[in-house]
Amino acid sequence: MMEKNLYTAFICISVLALTGCGAGENDPGYEYAPNMYHSVPYEPLKQVTDEEAGKWSELFSENEDNYGEYYNSNPLHVNEMTMREPPANTVRRDRFLPYRIAKDSLVQAAAVENPLPSSEEVLTEGRALYERFCDHCHGPDGQGATEGSVGEVFAGVPSYTSAAVVNVTGGHIFHVITQGKGRMGAHGSQISVEDRWKIVHYVQTLQKK
């Protein structure tokens, strides 16, 4: 009898599961754990103005406004927009201004000062970034192409303590990371402005070794 009941329960659950998988042109079918599919915060790239759109899912929603997960218009905006169109010619950036010093203006770049403090946190992050982007050519201690170095290095890479490099400024280092110099390619498209300045601080500790 118990086996028959288990068999019946299995059949019922299977039928319900298969029914939930069915969907039509305007019917997505049942959704299990809808919060995994629909964002609770405002979605800037879509606009749903119908407050009733997500009523059916309010029992599963964490929203306190009882609108469900689909209504995402901003009631504080006159047009209920969740994102405004930026002004013409707007350039996206973080808290740093775009770096526009030309590649051949190394003297001008050398006078630029590092906007980040040389704190323990910045140096720790700078070291991690150095090991990711610089170690393979410059070596773990910044000694360049020295015999027996741990990292894979290339001939012609100078040591940070060499006479030609030991006294270069933070702005100089930042410019070379950004624009490249000699055999070193530009890394401006790979590393953010902030992370480049963190690397600069760490490289300057290697200049002193």
What key phrases describe this protein's structure?
mainly alpha; 209 residues; 6 helices; elongated; Cytochrome Bc1 Complex, Chain D, domain 2
What does this structure look like?
With 209 residues, this protein is mostly helical. It has 2 domains: 28-85, no CATH class; 106-207, Cytochrome Bc1 Complex, Chain D, domain 2, CATH 1.10.760.10. It has 6 helices and no strands. The protein is elongated, with a radius of gyration of 29 Å. The mean pLDDT is 79.
Summarize this structure briefly.
This protein is mainly α and 209 residues long. The protein has helices spanning 2-21, 106-110, 120-133, 135-138, 170-179, 193-207. The chain folds into 2 domains: 28-85, no CATH class; 106-207, Cytochrome c-like domain (Cytochrome Bc1 Complex, Chain D, domain 2).
Span of the ends, CA to CA: 81 Å
CATH superfamily of the largest domain: Cytochrome c-like domain
Name of the CATH first level of the largest domain: Mainly Alpha
Mean pLDDT, nearest integer? 79
Radius of gyration: 29 Å
Percent of residues in beta strands: under 5%
Number of separate domains: 2
Fold blueprint:
Layout (H helix, E strand, L loop, with lengths): L1 H20 L84 H5 L9 H14 L1 H4 L31 H10 L13 H15 L2
Helix pairs in contact: 3-6, 5-6
